[in-house]
Amino acid sequence: NAGVMQNPRHLVRRRGQEARLRCSPMKGHSHVYWYRQLPEEGLKFMVYLQKENIIDESGMPKERFSAEFPKEGPSILRIQQVVRGDSAAYFCASSPQASSYEQYFGPGTRLTVT
Amino acid sequence: QQPVQSPQAVILREGEDAVINCSSSKALYSVHWYRQKHGEAPVFLMILLKGGEQKGHEKISASFNEKKQQSSLYLTASQLSYSGTYFCGTAPQEGGGADGLTFGKGTHLIIQP
Fold this sequence. Notes:
heterodimer; A: mainly beta; globular; B: 113 residues; mainly beta; 0% helix
C-alpha cells in the first residue's frame, strides 16, 4: 500500500513565477491537509480539503495561495508570484476520516525561491 | 494557539528514559505525536483522544490529561533510532476533531551510545 506521494520533491522557482505542488493521498484516504515548515520550526497548518471541497483554509494566506482537491487526480497547492519568503518545506498529510484519525505525511516538497 | 512543548531539547544515553510534555491553552479533542528526522517527513507515533482512547506505537506510550489540557510522551529504554525532533499536534475540542493540527515547536532528542 503506497504511502502519501508528493511531487516534485524539490522545486526551484524565481521570484514572480508560479509553483505547483502535488499530493496524492494514501489509498482509501479522502481527507488531505497541507502544512508548511520553515527551517528549524514546527509545522504550520495551511488548508484542509476533502474531494472537491475546501473545508478549512484558515491557515492559508489570502493572496497568491490556492488549493484544490479535484474528484480525479491529486490535490494541488498553487502559489502564484512566489517571493523569497515562500521558501519552505511543504508537507501534505492524508487521513481516512477527519475525526479521531491519524494523519500520515508525505515526503514533502522543498521549495526554494531565488 | 500553538501548544507549548517541554523540554526544548534533551540528550540521553542509550537505554535511558525520556518524557516530553505538550501543553495547550485550549480544550482539546485529540493530541497527535510525531517524530521527524532531519530532512524527512514527520512519522506518526501516537494519537490520544478525548475520552481516553489511545492508538499508537508499541514501544512508546503517552498520556492525555483532558482537564489540564496536557499530554506527555514516554520513551522508555531509548534506542539510537529514537533520535529526532518530536512534535505534538493538537486538534481543538470545538472542531470535533475535524481540523488541521496545530503543532508545537518541537523537542529535539539526541540519543548517544
